[in-house]
Amino acid sequence: MSEIDQLKSQITDLEKQLMESRATSRMYLQNVAHQLTAPLNAIKWSIEALKDEQIPIQRKGNLLRSIYSQGSILVHLIKNFALMSNLEADEHLGQLRFTEKIDPMLMSINLANDFQPQAIDQGNKRIDVDKESFKVLRGHKIEAEKNLVAQAVSNLLENAVKYADKNSGIIIRGGKSGDGFGLAVISVGLPISDSEKARIFERGVRGKNAQQKVPAGTGIGLYLADRIMRLHQGSIELEANGRQSQFLLSFPKARIV
């Protein structure tokens, strides 16, 4: 093959890659718009309902909780989309820019409190932190980039809140993971098949049951959690047993300080 033919072949391949990238970007932006529209419409509807003077005070309290819940969803989505852009654009994120000592139990309690209104709003679910399980750290903390780790845990909680059974409990638990520390989010809800488990941390991948229950979704939450854990030289693992799912964030021994 001549050099000209090789160049033509390379140009053809590049054009194909560009078209595929544009198609993926369009689909991604459509999903983003749809995801943002849902909580905004819910907030708008609740505010309109609050204007009705005949609505009893108890109902107005429920509406205010719903506004808070939908607002939390909106903030979470925006953080995910912003983080997605940063991780995709920055090729030098192999090293963490800023780390600090994190108390994983305190972080878990704060995130559980943040997501509890949303959990109540979406089926009267409760989020509990197993404080005793964190004693395995014996007062030690995790050296990590706090905002990234908090976002990884938030993504797990957001999924648990969406897909767990109504009136069920979501548990955040600490414990040993190999020679390091693990933080798990456990819930009972949609079953995850073995074939779905194999690809669940890939970008854009969503399980069949998840798509049926919540049609709108970008499939980036678990992908981002996986990227974040790899940046910390750790990992994320899924253990599914029937309707119970456990997502485990594992930090290496070197991160325990």
Helix content: 40-55%
How would you name the CATH homologous superfamily of the largest domain?
A: Histidine kinase-like ATPase, C-terminal domain
Instruction: Give the helix/strand class.
Output: alpha+beta
Number of domains: 2
Query: How do the helices and strands follow one another from N- to C-terminus?
Result: HHEHEEHEEHHHEE
By DSSP (H or I, 4+ residues per run), the number of helices equals: 7
Could you give the count of β-strands?
7
Q: Which CATH C-level class of the largest domain is it?
A: Alpha Beta
Global shape? globular
Spatial order of the strands in the main sheet? 2-4-5-7-6
| C-alpha termini separation | 59 Å
Q: What characterizes the major β-sheet?
A: 5 strands, mixed
Classify the beta-strand content into a percent band. Answer: 15-25%
Mean pLDDT value: 83
Q: Flag low-confidence runs.
A: none
What is the CATH architecture descriptor of the largest domain?
2-Layer Sandwich
CATH topology of the largest domain: Heat Shock Protein 90
